[in-house]
Structure formats: C-alpha cells, structure tokens
Amino acid sequence: MPSYEFTCPVCGGFDRWHRMTEVPDSAPCPVCRRQARRRVCGGGLLRSGSAATRLLDATARTASEPPTVSAPPPRRGARVTRNPLHRKLPRY
Ligand SMILES: [Zn+2]
C-alpha cells in the first residue's frame, strides 16, 4: 500500500497510506482535522527516511558488506562477562 502526501493549509504536509484504488482527493489533517488536499507528486511507493526504507537500505548493505565478528557467539547458557572477579563466583 503506497503512501500519499497531503497538505493541510494550516499545519503543512503529512502522509497517509491508502490502497491505490481508494485514494481520496482530500483527507482530514491529523492535527487540526481540516480537510487537506492530496499533493500530486510522482513519488515512489516508499518515502526516503521511513522505517521501511531504512530496513531495505540496511538489508542491501549487509549483502555487500556482511557484518564481521571477532569471536563466535557465547555458548548457550554461558555467562557473558569479562570481569575477572566474576570467575570467582560460584557456578550452578
Ligand atoms: Zn492541519
């Protein structure tokens, strides 16, 4: 479902998600509830900076730059601490 941009005459722009077949020409402003007109733009399905866009960017980045680790993950149930004093603690 793509997002569409609306412009409130008082508060400015905001985005709303609509089905492509149900896009209204105006929508109530989430702040002042006045009718805001839909902005005509050739935008994509995702706006930059959105959570979906950040996720797609991070996913694409790991394909070419996989994260590197310096050690294997700790054993299941192993204590994760580097403090040497913790070695003296009783183990159960
Ligand atoms: Zn408004």
From TrEMBL:
Biased composition range(s): Basic residues: 76-92
Pfam families assigned: Zn_ribbon_8 (PF09723)
InterPro entries: Regulatory_FmdB_Zinc_ribbon
Signal peptide span: none
All residue ranges annotated as the Putative regulatory protein FmdB zinc ribbon domain in the record: 1-41
Region Disordered, residue ranges: 59-92
NCBIfam families: CxxC_CxxC_SSSS (TIGR02605)
Name the record gives this protein: Putative regulatory protein FmdB zinc ribbon domain-containing protein
Species of the source: Nocardia macrotermitis
